[in-house]
Amino acid sequence: MHRLALPFLGAASLLLLACGNALHAEQVGEVSTAFKLIGPNHKIVIEAYDDPLVAGVACYVSRAKTGGIAGGLGFAEDKAEASIACRQVGPVSFSQPLPASEEVFNERMSILFKKLRIVRVVDTKRNALVYLTYSDRLIDGSPMNSITAVAVDRATVIPVKR
After folding, report:
1. Would the keyword Ubl conjugation turn up in this protein's UniProt record (predicted)?
2. Which domain holds residue 50?
3. Which of 24, 71, 110, 146 could form a disulfide with 77 if both were Cys (CB 3.0 to 4.6 A apart)?
């Protein structure tokens, strides 16, 4: 291997590790949307995220995943559109008081600049957890977003950090 390639590969590896330290989703399904002769097809993936501070709540996100050669190698930028639905999947309990608003998940949508983000907001008046998904870029984000809410039984008070 060429001596100049080693520092580049080391720097690229560190950059990829830094970009990939977010909580990862579990893919639960996918559908192909466009055939690609070379590389994977374009598709819509469905991913599940368990809220790390709220037992019994899972969020399902559907989003576009770019295929082809660039998508297969991880260099393509995925589209900003995403949809979210969060549901109670078991008894709801809290491991600690929740911030009034907090990013709970993020996942990269391009090699450097774009992320899918999920934010949890506590609606204390209605005893509900509201989840918002959107994407952002280093320079310019997207106004496209999706929102869902999980009503928590009134007998279970949502603990909020003050």
Report:
1. no
2. 23-151
3. 110
